[in-house]
Amino acid sequence: MRVLAAMSGGVDSAVAAARAVDAGHDVTGVHLALSRSPQAHRAGARGCCTLEDARDARRAADVIGIPFYVWDLAERFEADVIDEFVAAYAAGETPNPCIRCNERIKFSAVLDRALALGFDAVVTGHHARLADGVLRRSVDEGKDQSYVLGTLRPEQLAHAIFPLGESTKDAVRAEAARRGLGVADKPDSHDICFIADGDTRGWLRDRLGSRPGPVVDAATGETVAEHDGTYGFTVGQRRGLGLGRPAPDGRPRYVLGITPVTSTVTVGPAELLDVGQLVARDAVWPHAGARRCSAQVRAHGGAVPATAVRVDGALMVTLDRPVRGTAAGQAVVLYDGDTVLGGGTITAVTAARSGASGVAR
Questions:
Q1: What superfamily does domain 2-178 belong to in CATH?
Q2: What's the mean pLDDT when you consider all of the chain?
Q3: Which of 58, 99, 207, 341 is the most exposed place for a label (fewest CB within 10 A)?
Q4: pTM for the whole thing?
Q5: What DSSP character marks residue 81?
């Protein structure tokens, strides 16, 4: 097949491209320029999408012996990932930009262009297994990335290749060293690549401005602090709340809910964070009727036994046991063992203790 290898500049994508060549594919490498100012993206051990990454990707392509190009997708990335990230926080949600990048950039914009240019598939360095259109967890549980791919549609997976799913990260690094790839020991990227200094609250304040409001105790209804903007908080947060005094019972308080319309942040005890049911939009769920499964709501969180069913176009997931601190904007990905069944973006939750429906938080 004629395939396009998305090369981020890291070790995973470099080895994935090399394995695609070994498999007999006609491979072309491409690096995605996702920022109008790459020097403003995070560099080094916490980086992604930097000038350094572009150079590393080009060197890897030279060692592998494949053609290499840079595609400028900065405008699309700004609109589909960064702008949506800002809008989600403004709406009181907790978005996952890596999931949106996979959906909208790597397996929408890039895949669409690749197919238009006559390529058959896109190769990436994700740690996940894919066979006959079925997505499964990586054999390396600690590096498994099936969660961030769990909302891809079948037609996108039909044109995807993930060569690393049967390998551990240590094995990938060792192979990169044997192949003479200079990125063999390059640290993994993590955190949000487009927030250069890691200060998400400050970055959002620059874009959304000051939007002051009260921090309210759920038990007493009392205002216990003031804040500059609800975008500076996430459900489940404990630190940085700026509370002037402890709770009457002396226990820690956590963010329970965010209401941007009134600019209110509600805090209370940890047990009120327990969620028993959630609803998701934009769901990839081709299954009829209620389906037993396990639900995962964080990239590196455990999966909980659950029942999922489509109701009026939305996906309703009832958890066998509560999950703590789940918020609107996060993704829920559903599994049968290590096989991905589908997923969607959480819009509302139901508190486990009261059984009352929660607002999209």
A1: HUPs (3.40.50.620)
A2: 91
A3: 207
A4: 0.90
A5: I
